[in-house]
Predict the 3D structure of the following.
Amino acid sequence: MFYNLFGKNVARKYWLKKTHSAVMRDYLQQAYASKRKLITETEIISLDIETTGLDAKKDRIVSIGLVQISELGIKLNTCWHKIIKTNKALPEKSVVIHNITDDENAAGITIENAIAELLAQLKGKVVLVHNANIEQGFINEVCQKLYQTNFVMQIIDTQVLAKRSFDRQGYSYKPAELRLFNLRKAYKLPPYKAHNALLDAIATAELFLAMLPTIAENDNARLGDFLS
């Protein structure tokens, strides 16, 4: 996409001018943080979504979870978790993974309300994810449907950070070693139950903080050292 060449702020300004949505205008109006900003001063949102599958055009978001990182501390009082009503029975294979029942799904909020709330929380923040293709792809698809506007975010991806670290060390690794919970094990972090959006967001936040000293010294680390 063009922002791979010209940067996320260029894409943000482009879609800010193009959008007719008040929700997206509010989200896009705040400039992104400078790459020179100290990571200790950077407001970060660790985000995870659970879906019915991996195809953003066919599958649906069933839950979203996030937690804020401020001054390199995880702020558990900022935890936010929403189950999304899909108005369709959930595929059995996806229920086995994320354990969201049809009753819980029926009691959830609409995707319109969930995305509006999510964008309000992400405004002006750096977004931390593990495997950004999932979050970027699904949220972008929803934003295109609801607002005819692309979803642009400033991203730190712990999967990308791990791959960079392995490549620098000349370490030969299997794709499975880049999975969130395998990386947590490598960094001696405690196991969590996978595929709950909020727990995965917290797990990603913990992994990032554990990885940080291996990438740059905390006192001198800049946001640009971590951005995807």
User: Anything to note?
Assistant: The mean pLDDT is 92. The chain is about 45% helix and 15% strand.
